[in-house]
């Protein structure tokens, strides 16, 4: 069996259209850096974002949301509690949810401890870069805060092991994206290194994954479809004018995405 099957645009189109038909309500508990970009990314693909953070509100909102994103990027005391309450409720109500374990690792033990507590509430998908996936599995990783210094190829076995251990899907992004449930693994090449020069492309991809797994009969392919869509948008976005225009152009590409993007 091949290490990973290349995931193609033709496979993603059904899932991309599904978002536009369903307009899923995505409950986002994400970091302070990427709130606005994430909301715009979700609107661009046809989903409805809602950034509901207060610990008094998260449980009742998980009940009405189609899916949930928890991103620990700028976690602190009060948001940690909101995250734990929301994840617990999502597990109870079987609401699909995504964990983005931003910058976990030995030098940031507070968030790493919370990330492990969150894992006990069975995320549907863990979406992270290679350093985060290695660190979550307790292995040596060379992260630089939220940025990865490890290759996804070298971390693939760890991603598979993590998926099997937690009975979840791991979407590990980088030069090559890998999406695995521990048995089936898809790979996606392409994208553009400029995606790492604009903050929040990974974080907003995690929100896209949450939108794609809402009411989906095939969460693995739904997750791969979200990853493919972000890579293609990064490839097609305008890189001639500088990184500011590039960030806005990603939104343009996501909102006009169609099946001609082979
Ligand atoms: N070297 C690269 N070449 C092409 N595409 C890349 C490269 N590195 C990352 N990407 C793409 O950039 C997007 C974000 O992935 P990345 O792994 O950088 O997330 P991240 O580190 O969690 O980002 P952030 O924390 O800033 O939101 C994905 O679509 C991924 O495929
Ligand atoms: C820059 C940064 N710092 C904490 S979260 C975040 C957004 C990218 O992950
Ligand atoms: Mg990240």
Write the layout of secondary structure elements.
Blueprint: E1 5-6, H1 9-22, E2 25-29, H2 35-45, E3 48-50, H3 58-64, E4 67-71, H4 77-93, E5 97-100, H5 109-119, E6 125-129, H6 130-136, H7 152-166, E7 169-173, E8 177-180, E9 185-188, H8 201-213, H9 219-236, H10 243-255
Parallel strand pairs: 1-9, 2-3, 2-4, 4-5, 5-6, 6-7
Antiparallel strand pairs: 7-8, 8-9
Helix pairs in contact: 1-9, 2-8, 2-10, 3-4, 6-7, 8-9, 9-10
The structure holds adenosine-5'-triphosphate (ATP), 2-(4-methyl-thiazol-5-yl)-ethanol and magnesium ion (MG).
- Give the second-level CATH assignment, the architecture: 3-Layer(aba) Sandwich
Low-confidence stretches: none
Q: Quick one: biggest sheet?
A: 9 strands, mixed
| Major sheet: arrangement of strands | 1-9-8-7-6-5-4-2-3
When the domains are counted, the total is: 1
CATH superfamily: Ribokinase
Please identify the top-level CATH class: Alpha Beta
**Small molecules held by this entry:** adenosine-5'-triphosphate, 2-(4-methyl-thiazol-5-yl)-ethanol, magnesium ion
Cα-to-Cα separation, first versus last residue: 25 Å
The secondary structure category is: alpha/beta
How many beta-strand segments?
Answer: 9
Task: Assign an overall shape.
Answer: globular
β-sheet strand percentage: 5-15%
Helix content: 40-55%
Number of helices: 10
Helix-strand pattern:
EHEHEHEHEHEHHEEEHHH
pLDDT averaged over residues: 96
Q: Examine the coordinates and then state which fold CATH places here, giving the name of the CATH topology.
A: UDP-N-acetylmuramoyl-L-alanine:D-glutamate ligase
- Rg, rounded, reads 17 Å
Pfam family, one: HK
Protein name: Hydroxyethylthiazole kinase
Binding site for substrate: 51, 200
Binding site for ATP: 127, 173
């Amino acid at each position: 069996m091949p290490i990973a099957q290349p995931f193609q645009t033709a496979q993603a189109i059904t899932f991309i259209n599904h978002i536009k038909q369903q307009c899923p309500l995505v409950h986002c508990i994400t970091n302070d850096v990427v709130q606005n970009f994430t909301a715009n990314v979700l609107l661009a693909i046809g989903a409805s974002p809602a950034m509901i953070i207060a610990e008094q509100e998260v449980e009742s909102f998980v009940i009405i949301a189609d899916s949930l994103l928890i991103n620990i990027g700028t976690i602190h005391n009060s948001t940690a509690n909101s995250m734990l309450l929301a994840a617990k409720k999502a597990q109870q109500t079987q609401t699909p949810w995504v964990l983005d374990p931003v910058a976990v690792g030995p030098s940031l033990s507070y968030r790493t401890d919370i990330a492990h507590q969150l894992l006990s509430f069975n995320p549907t998908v863990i979406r992270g870069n290679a350093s985060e996936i290695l660190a979550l599995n307790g292995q040596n990783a060379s992260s630089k805060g939220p940025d990865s210094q490890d290759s996804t190829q070298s971390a693939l076995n760890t991603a598979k092991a993590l998926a099997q251990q937690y009975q979840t899907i791991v979407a590990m992004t980088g030069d090559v994206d890998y999406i695995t449930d521990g048995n089936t693994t898809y790979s996606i090449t392409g994208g553009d290194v400029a995606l790492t020069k604009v903050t929040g492309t990974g974080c907003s991809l995690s929100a896209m994954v949450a939108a794609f797994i809402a009411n989906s009969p095939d969460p693995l392919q739904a997750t791969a479809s979200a990853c493919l869509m972000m890579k293609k948008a990064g490839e097609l976005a305008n890189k001639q004018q500088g990184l500011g225009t590039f960030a806005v152009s990603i939104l343009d590409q996501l909102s006009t995405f169609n099946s001609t993007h082979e």
